[in-house]
Amino acid sequence: MSGEGRTKGRRRFFSQALGVGGGALLAGVVGCGDEGPTATSSTPTDPAPSPPTRARAPLLPGKDMDALIAHGTTPPAYETRRELLGTSVVTATPRFFVRQNVPLPPEEILADRDGWTVQVRGVREPGEIRVDELRRLGLSTVAMVIQCSGNGRRFFEHGPSGSPWAVGAAGCAIWSGVKLSTVVERFGGVSEGARFLTTTGGEPLPEGVAREDAVVERSIPVGKALEDCLLAWEMNGEPIPLVHGGPLRLIVPGYYGVNQVKFVQQVAFTEAPTAAKIHATGYRMRAIGEEGAADQPSMWAMGPKSFVTYPTARTPQRAGTLQVTGVAFGGTEAVAKVEVSVDGETWREAALVGPDLGPYAWRVFHLAIEASVGALPLFSRVTTVSGRVQREQRLENERGYGNESWRDMGVVVQVCAPDDEACLRPPEDAPGARRRREGPVELSEAGRRGRAIFREQAQPSCATCHALAEAEAGGVVGPNLDELGPSLEQVRAAVANGVGSMPSFTQLLTPEQIEDVAAYVFEATR
Questions:
Q1: What secondary structure letter does DSSP report for 240?
Q2: SS3 state of residue 9
Q3: Chain-centroid distance, C-alpha 496
Q4: Which has more confidence, 475 or 386?
Q5: What's the CA angle centered on 504, arms 501 and 510, to 5 degrees?
Q6: Quick one: 417 exposed, middle or buried, by C-beta within 10 A (0-12, 13-18, 19+)?
Q7: What is the pLDDT of residues 91-136, one digit of tens each?
Q8: Closest CA relative to residue 381, chosen from 307, 303, 330, 313
Q9: Predicted pLDDT at 12
Q10: Which residue has the higher pLDDT, 234 or 436?
Q11: Torsion on CA atoms 455, 459, 465, 466, rounded to nearest 10
Q12: Which residues have a Cβ under 8 Å from the Cβ of 108 and sit 6 or more positions away?
């Protein structure tokens, strides 16, 4: 094949394999500007996570920024590149994904880790305890997967608001601390009638925003809290870094990341769950178009999930024997087996390699396969010890939560002739960030009305939380809208339904006003 032919073939492959396909990518989100293939019964709906932006993301202390994909910087949202998750069971801390609902506390809170104090309420002898006192109560260690509830959101076709995670908002770490049940014994036991553990994080709360709208406070069943939860001060053998919740983090094995409250300030055993928005209406599994409500399922326990980590669409391979690796976990139970498929119909069992670190950790799997030149789909599915099998199709829901679909998690690998250097050359990182606006903004009539609402009429004011240059807004609680560049649909959904610590504005704004705000943000960031 000529060099020109190889180049054309390569372009054709990546136009098919590197993008979004059947799932609609959240328009305008940093690092996510790919186009992609049409999903079929034998090709994954999205073979590769979006490439990092060409402009280097701001540094996070201790982080390998080349291994991370930036979806937002304020608050930080970074996922691990699929092919860099490794094969050693434990995810390296510098490559572990980062997710914050609100901005990080200052580094100064780590100056005296042992002096960090936790309030203990809803017990027979309420009080407070320092980390150095917790250390004297005992020691427990658990290896477990932490996964963002929205991991896999990128594959949903309706474009849910939030970070467009592919598969890299998950990692497996070893956490060390003291069992919560031991702490409870120290304070005389749980008060009668308590049904929940409610944990409060130590993130600073912004001025002008109601506490319940911004505080990171989650409730879980008291039985789970006393079964195996930890108050942890160590991650992978080192003090927990600030971005991962140091100096003290609640660890809830088998539950989604939002329940693993960081910077723990208070643990309280309560009769009712917290009224904080992040729990009461946020992180709820709900139908598309519905608002969050307390009677909807909360994002607590994870289900079984697996995905190939190597090779991927970004790591072309020579024809012949390919070494396929990936990770699999059972959520709240151990992995029994993992299977791999090249067509989504016939399956071969893979070997589980490396140490078994317990039911909450993931297992690394491996399978050697023979591959000829062309596009090679790769899927994996996990079965747990109780017989639960990873689902084929995702459960459609408003916020794009809980995606366990093996079909969505699939990849397409380019397999090349051994001497085809053009084919074998890894793709360049595309500039995923949208084009920045230059010069003055010309607003439509709706945009001008929306600007007034954004700056003055909405309560709390949008400018209190968000940064937007055109509005002269410098808020740091919510995403920087100039970086995000959201679509009309994203703004409309966020204002109507709420997102993260942002409340729904449907009780304060008319549908027409919501449309005006959406028009303004869209026009101001283009």
A1: P
A2: helix
A3: 22
A4: 386
A5: 150
A6: middle
A7: 999 999 999 998 899 999 999 999 999 999 999 999 999 999 999 9
A8: 307
A9: 37
A10: 234
A11: -40
A12: none
Instruction: Report the residue count for the chain.
Output: 526
In the chain, the largest separation of any two C-alpha atoms, in whole Å, equals 79
| Cα distance between residue 167 and residue 408, in whole Å | 10
Whole-structure pTM value: 0.77
| List of residues 6+ apart from 498 with CB closer than 8 A | 277, 281, 282, 291, 292, 504, 505
Instruction: Show Cβ contacts of residue 94 under 8 Å, excluding neighbours closer than 6 positions.
Output: 62, 63, 64, 67
Q: Please write the tens of the pLDDT for every residue from 321-352.
A: 999 999 999 999 999 999 999 999 999 999 99
Residue with tokens 């608050």, as numbered in its chain: 75
DSSP assignment of 371-405 equals: E-SEEEEEEEEEEETT--B--SS----TT------
Distances (CA, A) of 255 to 126, 140, 148, 207, 300: 27, 18, 10, 31, 5
The amino acid at residue 80 is: T
Helix (H, G, I), strand (E, B) or coil at 301: strand
Rounded distance between C-alpha atoms, residue 33 and residue 181, angstroms: 47
CB-based burial label for 125 (10 Å; 0-12, 13-18, 19+): exposed
**Contact between residue 416 and residue 316 where contact means Cβ atoms under 8 Å apart:** yes
CA dihedral 99, 105, 107, 113 (to 10 degrees): -100
Q: Residue 413 to residues 10, 12, 46, 245: CA-CA distances in angstroms?
A: 12, 13, 12, 36
Copy the structure tokens of residue 10: 């390569």
Query: What pLDDT is attached to residue 441?
Result: 78
Q: What Cα–Cα distance (Å) separates residue 168 from each residue in 84, 98, 434?
A: 9, 10, 22
Q: Do 400 and 156 touch, CB atoms closer than 8 A?
A: yes
What pLDDT, on a 0 to 100 scale, did the predictor assign at position 42?
45
Residue listed under structure tokens 């929940």: 196
Q: Which amino acid is at 3?
A: G
> Coil, strand, or helix at residue 153?
helix
Q: How far apart are CA 251 and CA 176, in angstroms?
A: 9
**Residue 519 clears pLDDT 60, i.e. is over it:** yes
Average confidence (pLDDT) over 390-407: 97
3-class secondary structure per residue, 451-483: HHHHHHHCCCCHHHHCEEHHHCEECCCCCEHHH
- Residue found under tokens 């809290």: 225
